[in-house]
Design brief:
Helix content is about 15%, strand content about 15%. The protein is of the alpha+beta class. A three-stranded antiparallel sheet has the order 2-1-3, with no helix packed on it. It is globular and about 30 Å long. The two termini are about 25 Å apart.
């Protein structure tokens, strides 16, 4: 889902997403525990310890992947 948000780091992005979707019945923003999600910035994997320091620039693409059950 393309979405324009302001922030300087992945940590800022998480806060902006939480504010954007506050009160939504359809989207829940959770704290991404390192072992629960994987993150990529412009197609490059970002390790959990580097998320707070990963700088964002206008037009960057962020991907957050969470495991899902099922087949």
């Amino acid at each position: 889902i393309p979405l324009t948000l302001a922030g300087r780091s992945l940590a800022d992005l998480r806060a902006a997403l939480a504010a954007h979707y506050a009160g939504s019945r359809f989207v829940r923003v959770v704290d991404p525990a390192p072992r629960v999600v994987a993150t990529a910035l412009n197609g490059a994997f970002v390790p959990a310890p580097s998320r707070a320091d990963a700088a964002l620039s206008p037009g960057d693409a962020m991907e957050i992947v969470a495991p899902m059950q099922g087949g």
